[in-house]
Amino acid sequence: MGRIFVVDLEGRTYKCKFCKTHLALAGDLVSRGFHSRRGKAYLFSNAVNISVGPREDRMMLSGMHTVADIYCCRCGQIVGWKYVSFCFKYVFACLQRHFHSLFLTFFVTSNVSLFTFSLQEAAHEKSQKYKEGKFVLERGGIMDGLDSEFYIDTRPSMSDAEDA
């Protein structure tokens, strides 16, 4: 495995809960109203220091989406998922790979209804298109940059002068 280069963000950040690697800026937060299988989640327009897993179609509360799990690049923990853009080339490649002989037959004979049906199945609701290319970070796997490991004792204490 190669060397990992980590991007340090400036300003208020969201970090990996496990290794404190910066993942996103608070300014890139789009919505706090998302939910995952493990609890609350936040939608971000951008994320860094992540690796993206394989894409898959997943049924969610808002319908079917093409997503890819995202992992912290330092510790490898799953931190959320990315909404993957629908890509005609991807569908074309899948059809060609799985139905190579059939693909040529129905494409050449102009049986477009089967091809159209496949595209309609793969495309998702237009009302959900705003999510494409965005990242969802699960609240259980991240911590706000304001969260701190330091404990500040706010109880009143006596000074040295008062001890005497």
TrEMBL record:
<keyword id="KW-0479">Metal-binding</keyword>
<protein>
    <recommendedName>
        <fullName>Protein yippee-like</fullName>
    </recommendedName>
</protein>
<dbReference type="InterPro" id="IPR004910">
    <property type="entry name" value="Yippee/Mis18/Cereblon"/>
</dbReference>
<dbReference type="Pfam" id="PF03226">
    <property type="entry name" value="Yippee-Mis18"/>
</dbReference>
<keyword id="KW-0862">Zinc</keyword>
<dbReference type="InterPro" id="IPR039058">
    <property type="entry name" value="Yippee_fam"/>
</dbReference>
<feature type="domain" description="Yippee">
    <location>
        <begin position="12"/>
        <end position="146"/>
    </location>
</feature>
<dbReference type="InterPro" id="IPR034751">
    <property type="entry name" value="Yippee"/>
</dbReference>
<comment type="similarity">
    <text>Belongs to the yippee family.</text>
</comment>
